[in-house]
Design goal:
The structure holds two protein chains of two kinds. By secondary structure, chain A is of the alpha/beta class. Chain A contains twelve helices and eleven strands. In chain A, about 45% of the residues are buried. In chain B, a hairpin with a 2-residue loop joins strand 18 (about 460) and strand 19 (about 465-470). The chains are: A alpha/beta, B alpha+beta. The interface between A and B is medium-sized, with 21 and 19 residues.
Chain lengths: ~325, ~675
């Protein structure tokens, strides 16, 4: 049996080609989710960087729409798992099934065996289920009863959680939050966008359903290879580390950015450089992805909860970015 | 709270040690303070801070100590400066043993500074300079590290390795700068009015006092410190002189102590003539060094004229006058660290007129102590026999003493009758015993004689002769009718000069030559020396007779050479510095971005706080500013050069900057016209 094509053997595309692909996808997404250009670009950046995305928002602002649109634009196989309190790990990963006729077991893959997995309301599932998903995300494979099943490539998980209603939920442990490359929140659309949505409601079909694929899974794999090949100058690397160190030293932050956070920041910045058709990273790229990459990984001293924590963390990251001088 | 940096504490404690050492080298700090501070610094260097838990209690302990020191000062047992220095040392020690905090560190360094000031007041010698330098370097490094440490966020490692190099370099530059400042900037001497510095290696001992007391300390003979340097004319050209350097004579002996009859003169003079000169005289230019520690002039026997004396003081050289004391002694009127003067001496062997002597004085040359043991006279008679010539009798006695008695520096301490002890009990002694025995025995036989003290010998160093403290000596003058006083030395010849070890002599010579350099080049370096230095560069050279060789108003050749050398050195320095700056291409990119931002700022488009060129360019694009496209190109090029490993080609940055300048000019022109 041939091994599936790996990201590292796929030849990278040029920075200009990559930029064109990203722009195409972002333009396609904006047909489904309107008025959120910055967030869409970041989401595409996250996917291109090969990271998993955490969407944190109140219901009804288009989280699911965004994920579906992403899957369609890249032509990815998609599955959606609604996380509930009774969801078991096997419900996601799959299970061995006994065939009475042949008296054998065979593996029935769960919904995670798709290229894009939407884990809706992740924090409603018990920790055991959460960690099964997160483990699979980290390792790119599922191990059951001594057998290893590789997940399809490219593989991306987008999880959502509601930052307001925490009752009866299992908040993700910090170490698991760390596995998401970025955390984004779409927020309510601008009034004029909401008005436009109203006027367009005559169309019966959902806007997502009419989206055409503008890219392919193979192209996404090639994009990821290019991201990995992006040049990161030592001065920029030192800048990234200085930023992380500054979060560690900050008086209002209990625990600062981890080494995984530093790596994530570098990867996201590499992907962000593609928007400018550059094959190298600038301090500007780092700052562009700083908030989405770092804010959810910090443990604050204040002990606030939910959306307030998010805002406060973002505020602190901005403060750190202002304090740490960029290399010139 | 994070733990303080170990290296910084180490440097801080070492700087305290250096500061304290700067006082301790004067030898005046009491032993208990020395011990306590050394203990504190040692424990501190070991990394232990036992007082950290009881800061208040241990600070409170300093109060009774301060009280005790105050009482000691009030009772006159302690010098105020010494007391203050000791207390500063104790405060520093207490702080060193306490928890490190910015306040503690400041107090430790402040105490160090006080100790340095105290050290300057207590001693002006080379070792002080070494300690001062050590303190300055260590304290600078410690302070620098403290600044770095405070700026590094808590919990982060301090980049010691990266910091120490520039810090060290900066300290060296500062030291060199300070030296240049010292040499070239006109200055006043601040030593005026300050406590007189004591000479090096502790209080000096030359063996000179108003009296000679038999049975005193014998360690003097092993002291290798140089007390005088002399230039002789005509130069005797020998490696070692066998000459007597006389300081003063004594005519009264009370059985234990020699003193001089006769009142000191009240007159102060700049030149003193003691006796008529001879045809040939030995000219001496003598420098009495600070180690000498006395004000008596020393000269080769038999001095005829002394004068032109200069006292070396902390504020420079000063002419000083001389006063005649009893016993042919001449003394400087003013106190000085050292002195220099000129002497003419009658060569040995020449008849000299002792000058006018009154009856009391001549009688005194025969006076004997009341408590003299009758056996002394008996003994003298037996040796002298019926010899009537004073000189022959003296030589007979001297030869007998040298044959029958041992030379020793081992003394048994004070005895009631040192002469009897020497002649009949121990049969051993040093030069004072031999000389006293000879003088007294001569007197018992009716020969007029007296004791002379000074130095014997002289070692050639370069074209000068050096006399050491260990060369201190005593001998006998016997009065020969028609010839005057003649020197007869009863001490065995081998033991007349100093008895110190050769190694010690070499070490002390080395130290003294360095200290002399330090004194000449630093302590006594005055505005006048600076002027001389500059004048020496510009004054036309003179031929040996002292006449200027050229009448040109232009500076002499060596001034041009010096100027050229300085210019070359400066040029080299600039070259080295500029090459270092021009090294990496990425820094050219940084210079480029600086220039772009300067141009933008001049055109009224300065970057906002924290904005990079990337941000400015993005902002202008959003605002659809007319300059945005050009700036985007520039920014892209800068980013490529700085972070994308595509360095700017030569001349590229200039071209891009010119484009920007032009664009800025054209975009500004309409506004200018409008206003």
């Amino acid at each position: 049996m041939n091994a599936p094509a790996r990201a590292d053997v796929t030849p990278p595309v040029s920075a200009a080609t990559a930029r064109a692909a990203l722009e195409r996808v972002a333009a396609n997404l904006s047909l489904a989710v309107q008025g959120k250009e910055r967030e869409l670009r970041l989401a595409v950046t996250c996917v291109a960087a090969g990271g998993h995305l955490l969407l944190e928002d109140v219901p009804g602002v288009g989280k699911t729409t965004l994920v579906e649109a992403l899957g369609r634009s890249f032509g990815l196989s998609l599955s959606r798992v609604q996380f509930t309190a009774d969801l078991m790990p096997t419900d996601i990963l799959g299970a061995q099934v006994f065939h009475a006729a042949s008296a054998t077991f065979s593996f029935r893959p769960g919904p995670i065996f798709r290229q894009l997995v939407l884990a809706d309301e992740l924090n409603r599932a018990p920790p055991r289920t959460q960690s099964a998903l997160l483990e699979a995300m980290a390792q790119g494979q599922v191990s059951l009863d001594g057998t290893t099943h590789p997940l399809p490539r490219p593989f991306t998980v987008v999880a959502t959680q509601n930052p307001v209603d925490f009752s009866g939920t299992y908040p993700l442990p910090d170490s698991q939050l760390d596995r998401f490359l970025m955390r984004l929140s779409l927020g309510h659309p601008a009034p004029e966008v909401e008005a436009r949505l109203l006027t367009q409601q005559r169309d019966t079909a959902s806007s997502v359903d009419v989206l055409e694929p503008v890219s392919t899974p193979e192209e996404l794999t090639a994009l990821r290879a290019q991201v990995a090949a992006q040049r990161l100058d030592t001065a920029v690397a030192e800048y990234v580390v200085r930023l992380a160190q500054a979060t560690r030293a900050h008086g209002d932050i209990e625990r600062g950015a981890s080494t995984r956070a530093v790596l994530a920041l570098g990867m996201a910045a590499r992907a962000h450089a593609l928007w400018d058709a550059r094959d190298f990273v600038t301090p500007g790229d780092v700052r562009a992805v700083l908030g989405p990459c770092l804010a959810h990984r910090l443990l604050l001293r204040s002990g606030t909860q939910g959306a307030y924590t998010r805002d406060e963390a973002l505020h602190l990251v901005e403060e750190v970015a202002r304090k740490v001088p960029a290399p010139r | 709270m994070t733990r303080p940096l170990r290296l910084r504490l180490l440097l801080r404690d070492l700087s305290v040690a250096a500061a304290f050492a700067s006082m301790a080298v004067s030898g005046q700090v009491p032993l208990w303070a020395l011990g306590l501070v050394l203990l504190a610094v040692g424990v501190g260097l070991w990394g232990k801070r036992p007082f950290a838990r009881y800061p208040r209690l241990t600070s409170a302990l300093l109060v009774p100590v301060a009280g005790a020191i105050y009482l000691a000062v009030a009772a006159g047992q302690m010098d105020l400066v010494v007391a203050a220095c000791s207390f500063a040392g104790l405060v520093a020690g207490q702080r060193v043993l306490s928890q490190s905090s910015p306040a503690t560190d400041g107090q430790v360094l402040l105490a160090g500074l006080l100790m340095i000031a105290g050290g300057a007041a207590l001693s002006g010698e080379l070792l002080f300079a070494v300690c001062l330098l050590a303190f300055a370097v260590l304290a600078c490094l410690s302070l620098g590290l403290a600044v770095v440490e405070s700026s590094v966020p808590a919990g982060e490692p301090v980049p010691v390795r990266a910091v120490m190099r520039p810090l060290g370099r900066g300290t060296v530059v500062a030291m060199v700068g300070a030296m240049a400042f010292f040499v070239f900037i006109p200055r006043l001497n601040w030593n005026m009015g300050v406590r007189r510095a004591s000479p090096g290696l502790g209080t000096a001992t030359s063996g000179f006092s108003d009296t000679v007391r038999l049975g005193g300390s014998g360690t003097l003979k092993s002291n290798p410190r140089v007390v005088l340097r002399a230039r002789l004319k005509p130069d005797p050209q020998s490696e070692r002189l066998s000459s007597y350097w006389v300081g003063r004579t004594y005519d009264t002996f009370d059985g234990v102590e020699w003193t001089t009859l006769g009142a000191p003169s009240r007159r102060n003079r700049t030149r003193v003539t003691l006796r008529p000169g001879a045809e040939k005289q030995v000219y001496q230019r003598i420098e009495l060094l600070p180690a000498y520690g006395s004000r008596t002039l020393i000269a080769l026997e038999t001095p005829a004229k002394l004068g032109n004396a200069l006292a070396h003081t902390a504020t420079g050289d000063r002419r000083t006058q001389l006063r005649e004391q009893g016993g042919d002694e001449l003394r400087f009127v003013d106190d000085g660290l050292g002195y220099s003067y000129e002497v003419y001496s009658v060569p040995p062997g020449t008849d000299t007129d002792p000058g006018k002597m009154n009856e009391q004085e001549t009688d005194q040359l025969l006076a004997l102590p009341e408590t003299l043991d009758p056996r002394v006279e008996e003994l003298a008679r037996r040796v002298v026999g019926d010899e009537k010539d004073p000189l022959a009798a003296a030589q007979k006695l001297s030869a007998w003493l040298q044959r029958e008695y041992q030379y020793t520096l081992e003394l048994g301490g004070d005895v009631a009758d040192p002469l009897r002890d020497f002649l009949f009990v121990r049969k051993a002694g040093h030069c004072e015993h031999f000389a006293t025995a000879l003088t007294v025995m001569l007197r018992t036989q009716g020969f007029e004689s007296r004791l002379a003290t000074g130095f014997f010998g002289g070692e050639r160093v370069g074209d000068e002769y050096m006399v050491r403290a260990g060369d201190a000596h005593a001998w006998t003058h016997v009065l020969v009718p028609g010839r005057g006083f003649v020197t007869v030395d009863a001490t065995p010849a081998d033991f007349r000069t100093n008895q110190s070890s050769k190694v010690l002599e070499t070490l002390v010579s080395l130290y003294e030559s360095m200290e002399a350099m330090w004194r000449n080049a630093v302590v006594d370096y005055s505005f006048r020396d600076q002027m001389d230095f500059v004048r020496g560069l510009t004054r036309p050279p003179r031929d040996p007779s002292g006449k200027p060789m050229a009448r040109s108003a232009l500076p002499p050749f060596r001034a041009w050479v010096t100027a050229a050398a300085v210019g070359l050195a400066l040029y080299g320095l600039v070259r080295v510095l500029s090459r270092r700056r021009a090294r990496p291409t990425r820094q050219e990119a940084t210079r480029f971005v600086d220039a772009v931002e300067r141009l933008l700022a001049r055109a009224g488009l300065p970057p906002r706080e924290g904005e990079t060129l990337e941000d400015v360019s993005a902002r202008l694009s959003r605002e659809a500013h007319p300059l945005a496209p050009l700036l985007a190109t520039l920014t892209r090029r800068y980013l490529e050069a700085r972070f994308g490993q595509r360095p700017l080609a030569s001349g590229e940055s200039a071209r891009l900057l010119a484009e920007l300048k032009q664009a800025l000019d054209t975009s500004q022109r309409p506004t200018a016209r409008a206003s």
